Amino acid sequence: MRTERLEQLLTTIDRLGAVKIKHLLAIHNDLRSYRNACRVVRELEPFTNQIFYDREKVIYLNKEGRQLIGSTKEVKKSPVLEHTLLRNEVYLYFGCPIDWRTEHTIEKPQERYSSLQIKVEGVKLKQKKVVADAVFTRNADTYLIEVDNTRNMSDNRKKIELYKEVMPSVQAPILYFFTVSEIRKRKLEQWLKGVRAKVKTFGEVT
Asked: Could you give the CA distance from residue 138 to residue 94 in angstroms, rounded to a whole number?
């Protein structure tokens, strides 16, 4: 395999964290067929870890793969693997955004206090922030992505309240929640009233 081609594939894997063969096939159209994609993935073995998850092969970079493309992002087999793969489905749903960023921190601008206020009133400076599962921009809108598969609904509600605080500091934000059931979808929609947001189940997008 040509070095350029190899690095393109490894960069895609690194960007998404971990991928299924069908993800690579959807992103790299020149793989042409699932059978050919499987053959190419076998050629990636010296640079990747390949495991089976839910009866499908999942690929992520090993030390050699990270070194080849200069990546410092280490991925390990863990309970968050399903979350990563579901996030990939969202990436494909939106047509593989060019500026897709994962685990992106959004902060609310800190209120300004004088040193006298801090000293006399005992003001504690605590930054409000939220970590979005992914972020990208399109047509001047900022898309904030949340993947909900195993998170407690009470934690979802707390995170939504944080989003309400930080979203005014984001340019034209729209919050998308992707969840696993209709029951969760209805609860999330209720909590997101008044927020520019949409909720979808994975059954609607995969």
From this structure: 10
125's tokens = 């400076």
* Token reading at 48: 């990747």
- How far, in Å, CA of 196 to CA of 176, rounded? 9
The angle, 0 to 180 degrees and rounded to 10, between the axes of the packed helices 153-166 and 182-191 is 30
- Bridge partners, residue 175, by sequence: 144, 197
Whether residue 159 contacts residue 130, with contact meaning beta carbons closer than 8 Å, is answered with yes
- First and final C-alpha spacing in the chain: 31
Neighbour-count burial for 125-153, b at 16+ CB within 10 Å, e otherwise: eeeeebebbbbbeeeeebbbbbbbbeeee
- Is the pTM for the entire model greater than 0.90? no
Three-class secondary structure of residue 95 per DSSP: coil
Say if CB 24 and CB 12 are below 8 A apart. yes
SS3 201: strand
Give per-10-residue mean pLDDT for the chain (206 aa).
92 96 95 95 97 93 97 87 95 96 88 51 66 96 96 95 94 97 97 97 92
Cβ atoms within 10 Å, residue 203: 11
Single out the residue of 150, 167, 163, 156 nearest to residue 202, CA to CA. Answer: 150
- 48: β partners: 61
